[in-house]
Structures are given as C-alpha cells and as structure tokens.
Amino acid sequence: MSPPGELAMFLAIGAAALGLFFGPIGKALGRRLSGRAYTHARAEVEEMGAHVTDEMDDLRRRLAEVEERLDFAERLLTDSPPANQLPRGAER
Question: Does this model's pTM top 0.85?
Fold first, then answer.
C-alpha cells in the first residue's frame, strides 16, 4: 500500500474506534464497568414491578365487578318467572 492509502485506512479505523468508545456502546460499557448499569437496571425492574402490581389490582377490581354482575343476573333469572309466559289460569 502507498502511504496515503495507509493513512486513510488508519484514519477510518480510528474514526470507527472513536465512534464505538464515545457512542452508545462505549457509554453502556462505561456504565457496566462503573456499576451504574446495575442500579439503573434495578430501578427499571422495580418500576416495572410497580406497574405490574397496579395492573393486577385493576384486574382484580374488574373481576370482582364481573362476579357481582354475574351473581345479580343469576338471582334475577332464578327468582322471577319468565316474562314471556302467561300466568297459569289465564289461558283461553
């Protein structure tokens, strides 16, 4: 290779290395080495856990409401005679 070609290759490799070290990969590697990644991941897990707990509470509330409606419908169906039938003795 000629010296200008070697210089261009050296500059290209250097630019790629700088991009890796100062880009997202370098930042993630730095957080991992400093231990900040663990605390950040732990905070994310705790936040997701709180979100899941909120969703579960909402689902429990909605299920309880559906159970109440089902009980009401069952009582309504068993307590009263069907509305589409004539009372006995009223036949012609």
Answer: no
